[in-house]
């Protein structure tokens, strides 16, 4: 009998769930997708449902009384079990595995079954990523209550980067304090980078352990990663997802002293602090009230890209410039042995103007794109947009974190449930 896997991705204002079943061929590591549901707008009610299953599509259905991640999860679960076109999932007991994307996993090098110990470890790390681990933990708690029979597994965005060399992940501060407080570069978007590395390795028919790429995960949260021999060698995010590239509401890297000049109450608790989430005013300002939103008034990068307003052009140019600050150095860290520059994430996939500007900025390294290929909507998992005379490839990857987690369940099943 096929087993049902739910891949759960809880954001600060949304819950996205992909439903998979295990393949009939037990040696296959490719789960079969059955449906996908998203509840978004939790912080700007009314929440809305987006649902796809085969030919059935629901978009923008307004939901009453759905205000939290837990509400969203319960609503989706009811919707799935009541969907007559989804016979594989008639009742909650049909669900065997639930995977959760957890942003900060500290030193965990791989996924973990969530027991009391793991749960408290993730909770402790919430102080390092208060805006990111808290939503995931809300769902983890809800799932443990609602689906006690399912195997609950955490996949960490930081796990892919546990291969960073010590001289890259160490901050030059007092090491006793750094080790005691777990202060080091962790890096994030690792589930996405893992998917990207696998997809590009397959596409180029090159063994993963020989793959060298410069990968850009560009969405409302954005980061860069230097993948050397299939492993993370350097990445732009740091102790938290705030470091590195700016995003929709994040500042990215700034002079650390800026905050003390910005507000003298930087270290005081933010009004969003609660019993479950400890967050300072500085964290709230830099994570929630900065980035393109602060420059342009919108978080929609598509609108920013197509506008001629000075503020929008400034935000666009800042983003391109900060991306270039990583591509060149990562190219040298790979000693010029680069299989591809890879764009992924919502903006990476849809932002043809941004891709063009970035590649133009590193043309001296041997990258060039074909304008026609770059201007065509991306449909495949991996699309080559390089021009014929380019020395190095430029690829666009439609990353899929939910699929990467579900694949992980198939690959690590013995570790999660024991060998039969």
Automatic annotation (TrEMBL):
Its EC number is 2.7.2.1. Keywords: ATP-binding, Kinase, Magnesium, Metal-binding, Nucleotide-binding, Transferase. Coiled coil: none annotated. It holds the Pfam family Acetate_kinase. Transmembrane segments: none annotated. It catalyses: acetate + ATP = acetyl phosphate + ADP. Its cofactor is Mg(2+). One of its GO terms (biological process) is acetate metabolic process. ATP binds at residues 16, 217-221. Substrate binds at residue 101. Gene3D superfamilies: 3.30.420.40. The record marks 189, 250 as: Transition state stabilizer. It is an enzyme of class 2 (transferase). It comes from the Eukaryota. Mg(2+) binds at residues 9, 401. The active site is at residue 157. GO terms for molecular function: acetate kinase activity; ATP binding; magnesium ion binding. Pathway: Metabolic intermediate biosynthesis; acetyl-CoA biosynthesis; acetyl-CoA from acetate: step 1/2. InterPro entries: Ac/propionate_kinase, Aliphatic_acid_kin_short-chain, Aliphatic_acid_kinase_CS, ATPase_NBD. HAMAP family: Acetate_kinase (MF_00020). PANTHER family: ACETATE KINASE, ACETATE KINASE-RELATED. Belongs to the acetokinase family. This is Probable acetate kinase. It comes from Clathrospora elynae. The lineage of its organism: Eukaryota, Fungi, Dikarya, Ascomycota, Pezizomycotina.
């Amino acid at each position: 009998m096929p087993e049902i896997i739910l891949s759960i991705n809880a954001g600060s204002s949304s819950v996205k769930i992909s439903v998979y079943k295990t393949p009939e061929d037990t040696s296959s590591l490719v789960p079969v997708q059955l449906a996908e549901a998203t509840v978004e707008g939790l912080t700007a009610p009314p929440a809305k449902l987006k649902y796809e299953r085969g030919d059935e599509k629901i978009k923008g259905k307004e939901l009453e009384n759905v205000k939290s991640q837990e509400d969203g999860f319960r609503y989706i679960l009811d919707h799935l079990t009541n969907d007559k076109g989804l016979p594989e999932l008639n009742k909650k007991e049909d669900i065997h595995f639930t995977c959760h994307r957890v942003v900060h996993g500290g030193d965990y090098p791989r996924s973990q079954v969530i027991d009391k110990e793991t749960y408290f470890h993730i909770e402790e790390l919430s102080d390092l990523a208060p805006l990111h681990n808290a939503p995931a933990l809300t769902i983890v708690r809800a799932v443990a209550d609602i689906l006690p029979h399912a195997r609950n597994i955490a996949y960490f965005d930081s796990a892919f980067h546990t291969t960073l060399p010590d001289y890259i992940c160490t901050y030059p501060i007092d090491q006793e304090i750094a080790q005691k407080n777990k202060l080091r570069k962790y890096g994030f978007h690792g589930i996405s980078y893992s998917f990207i590395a696998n997809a590009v390795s397959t596409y180029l028919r090159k063994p993963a352990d020989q793959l060298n790429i410069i990968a850009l995960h560009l969405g409302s949260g954005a980061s860069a990663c230097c993948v050397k021999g299939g492993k993370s060698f350097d990445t732009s995010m740091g102790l938290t997802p705030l470091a590195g590239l700016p995003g929709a509401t994040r500042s990215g890297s700034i002079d650390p002293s800026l905050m003390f000049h910005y507000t003298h109450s930087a270290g005081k608790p933010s009004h969003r602090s609660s019993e479950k989430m400890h967050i300072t005013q500085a964290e709230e300002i830099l994570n929630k009230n900065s980035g393109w939103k602060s420059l342009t008034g919108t978080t929609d990068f598509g609108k920013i890209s197509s506008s001629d307003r000075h503020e929008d052009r400034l935000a666009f140019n800042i983003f391109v410039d900060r991306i270039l600050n990583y591509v060149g150095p990562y190219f040298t860290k790979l000693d010029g042995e680069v299989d591809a520059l890879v764009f992924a994430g919502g903006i990476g996939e849809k932002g043809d103007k941004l891709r063009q500007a970035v590649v133009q900025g590193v043309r001296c390294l041997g990258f060039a794109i074909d304008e026609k290929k770059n201007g065509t909507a991306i449909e495949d998992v991996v699309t080559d947009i390089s021009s014929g005379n380019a020395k190095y490839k430029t690829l666009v990857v439609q990353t899929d974190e939910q699929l990467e987690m579900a694949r992980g369940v198939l690959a690590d099943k013995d570790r999660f449930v024991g060998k039969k």
